[in-house]
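Researcher: I've been going back and forth with a colleague about how Cation-transporting P-type ATPase C-terminal domain-containing protein might be arranged in three dimensions. Neither of us has a model we trust, so I'd like an independent prediction. The organism is Eleusine coracana subsp. coracana, in case that matters for your notes. Sequence below.
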Amino acid sequence: MFLGIIAVTIAMQVLMVELLTRFAGTQRLTLAQWGVCVAIAAVSWPIGWAVKFIPVPKRTLHQILTTWRNSCFSSSASYKGLELDSHTTN
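Model: Here is an independent structure prediction for Cation-transporting P-type ATPase C-terminal domain-containing protein. You can compare it with whatever you and your colleague have in mind.
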């Protein structure tokens, strides 16, 4: 199924670039330009495959930054007139 979708996408791109130039506002590509396009696509697939092996942390970036901010500014002193502690005593 996935390869079928890729094939349809490639066919549509070739159709738009080579046949529907006035409709799509494109210019036909030379054989060398098509070769560059295919080379870029051929390089992007292994890179995408390799990126999938990068481990994803259990905590989100927002959680990491919030923890860091709270640890850096955990004193009860105010910063530029703003209270940093989430608990205020009145």
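Researcher: What would you highlight for our discussion?
Model: I'd start with this: The radius of gyration is 26 Å. After that, consider the following. Helices lie at 2-18, 21-24, 31-51, 61-72.
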